[in-house]
Design a protein that fits this description.
Blueprint: H1 2-19, H2 28-48, H3 55-120
Amino acid sequence: MAKKEKAAEKVVAADKKEKKPANPNGNIFVRAGKAIKKFCKDLKGEIKKIVWPDAKTVLKSTAVVLVVVAICGLAIFAVDQLLSLGLSGLKDVAQSIGDSANTTTTAANTGMIGLGNFFIG
């Protein structure tokens, strides 16, 4: 008899183990619902901690931002103009060097042609 009772207890214990869910936190939808609920609760608590500035502070901050943007814009404009001036200067120098090289080459070519005609003619 004792063996039968022990066997029955084992069967009951095995049934209890089988009835245990695979995930104790529930399925994915239950976990997602809990996570969303917790997120909303935490968000509500964080929103309560926000301290909004008054209108005077907002206007001062806006003025500071506008002044800094204007200064940075002027600095970028100045650098752009300097670089543009420098590049146009380099272009003029290169063009004048090219013109003088073409003049020298043309003079040398006409001299050679003249000498060739002198010897041939």
